[in-house]
TrEMBL record:
It comes from Dyella japonica A8. This is 4-phosphopantetheinyl transferase. GO terms for biological process: lysine biosynthetic process via aminoadipic acid. InterPro entries: 4-PPantetheinyl_Trfase_dom (IPR008278), 4-PPantetheinyl_Trfase_dom_sf (IPR037143), P-Pant_transferase_sf (IPR050559). Coiled coil: none annotated. GO terms for molecular function: holo-[acyl-carrier-protein] synthase activity; magnesium ion binding.
Amino acid sequence: MITTDGQALAPLATALGDDEIHVWRLAYDHHQGRAPLLAMLGVYLGVPAEAVELETLEHGRPALAGARRDTLSFNWSHCQDQALIAVARGVLPGVDLERLRAHPKAVPIARRYFSPDETAALEALSPEQRDRAFLELWTAKEAVLKALGRGLAFGLHRLSIAGPSDLPVLHRLEGHEADQWQLHRLALDEQHVGTLAWQGEPRRIRQWTLAGAV
């Protein structure tokens, strides 16, 4: 596997630093299941994909099983024909990907599931701006919940995202210190929105696209 600029995956994986998070963008077909994820983790672990064992934690988050569980943390998200995989050591990353599309019910959904300040911010936008802003909020919330190890059942209204589009900030997370969290908007393309989240100090984000992903 190589990146779109010709770099081999294995040396990049070997160089994963304790102060970094690696994010990979790749082509995806739902018939593949977890195969691309297992292949990626195998490169980072230095083992064949078939040797990578996963388990599902209490709220559905996948994790490495057995003796390798604490050696590497990861998260992934897929949407139609693309996927994102985040890999790190020492923190639990959460990543979410959505394809940009029209959301005529964005405001009613926000009124039901988002915080009042987020809803007000969406209502203040033009319809042309609202679709992307809605998905930016959605992916940020999902990324935080995935990094937290919880799913949507935790409640989207229990956290609030503030700040400009390119620099989102976790303003509130019920039961947790919001200022201990980092959010990073991922640079993808005009058709996709993605957000990375983790609890802890700021880290260097290194992002690549596998050849054939776009």
